[in-house]
Amino acid sequence: MSLVTTKEMFAKAYEGHYSIGAFNVDDIDIMQGVLDGAASVNAPVIIAVSEGAYKFMRPDFVVAAARAAAENYDIPVALHLDHGKDMGIIKNCVDIGFTSVMIDASAYDFEENIRITKEVVEYAHAKGVVVESELGAIAGIEDDIVVDDKYGQFTHPDDAVEFVKRTGIDSLAIAIGTAHGAYKFKPGQKPQLRFDILEEIQERLPGFPLVLHGASSVPQDRLEIFNQYGGQLPAAIGIPTDMLREASEKAVCKINVGTDIRVCYFGEIRRQMALKPEKFDGRSFLEPARNAVAEMVAKRITEVFGSNDKA
Asked: Please, are residues 35 and 293 in contact by the beta-carbon 8 Å criterion?
């Protein structure tokens, strides 16, 4: 089949109370691992490419590989630009075959975010491409994550309603306590998602698909392998899987995963290189790493997102 948009994926996910995994890929090998994992559990999947990966992998190669995947895997596959900020890159992705793009203008004030997002929506919708945007602050480790304030830097339901209405976007990434990177929380800080805010937004925007960014769980068994073989990610912690499962059962139709993939992939490469010092054939290291990604993807889909057997 051809690459698909996320429109139908999200409609089914919302109705079925599950979410679709959007897995960030940095190269073709990781892309294959993600697709192998999704196909093994018969799940729809979103291949997410950041602007950095877009440049590294080269746009035409990305699209060609994704199209080949869609034709060779019997599951729905969408190709998505993640956190697009450069208007030239966003428009090029629309033009060359991405089926979904994200415009991230969340660093701007509310009105400027709306203006920029509307420009992307008008361009993308004219070519049948869906658009995701972001509202609120998806924190990093350097940011304070306030959980005892009603809204703070989190997405305000009133803003969400107005933003969706005025921009015409197809999905909205909200801030309810997730964070980017391997170090999502400071030492001693307890992960906590603001389900009260999620439920308010869901009530105000019935049927509208919401998105969680910065939602890797950082699997501790894979983190241990990464560190055991020379990695230096001590005390990395992610979002508990039970929280992500609860979000999937509500209005969250897409959950982004990036850190988990890197921890699995590069941890396994480190291990294989240490165990096979005589090898200099890249396939000796990369195939087990690709399989580690596939295993993690299948596990996330079946145990957390609930999108297995929904292809």
From this structure: no
Reported as a single tens digit per residue, the pLDDT across 46-105 is: 999 999 999 999 999 999 999 998 899 999 999 999 999 999 999 999 999 999 999 999
Cα atoms found within 13 Å of the Cα of residue 134, Cβ hemisphere only: 25
71: amino acid identity, one letter: E
CA 271 to chain centre: 26
Taking all residues of the chain, what is their mean pLDDT, rounded to a whole number?
91
Q: What is the DSSP string of 49-64?
A: EEHHHHHHH-HHHHHH
d(CA 107, CA 217) in angstroms, rounded, equals 25
Burial classification of residue 291, based on how many CB atoms lie within 10 Å of its CB (0-12 exposed, 13-18 middle, 19 or more buried): middle
Task: Give the domains, in start order, of the chain with CATH numbers.
Answer: 7-304 (3.20.20.70)
256 vs 62: CA distance, rounded Å:
19
Which residues are the active-site residues?
Answer: 82
Which bin fits 173, alpha (ψ -120 to 50), beta or left (φ > 0)?
beta
What backbone phi and psi angles, to 5 degrees, belong to 70? Answer: -60, -35
- pLDDT tens-digit profile of 134-180? 997 655 433 343 444 456 678 999 999 999 999 999 999 999 988 76
**From CA 180, how far away is CA 159, in angstroms rounded?**
22
Name beta bridge partners: 20: 254
Amino acid present at 13: A
Residue 235's φ and ψ, nearest 5 degrees, are 65, 20
| Cα–Cα distance measured from residue 27 to residue 50, given in angstroms and rounded to the nearest whole number | 11
pLDDT digits (tens, 9 = 90+) for 226-246: 999 999 988 777 888 999 999
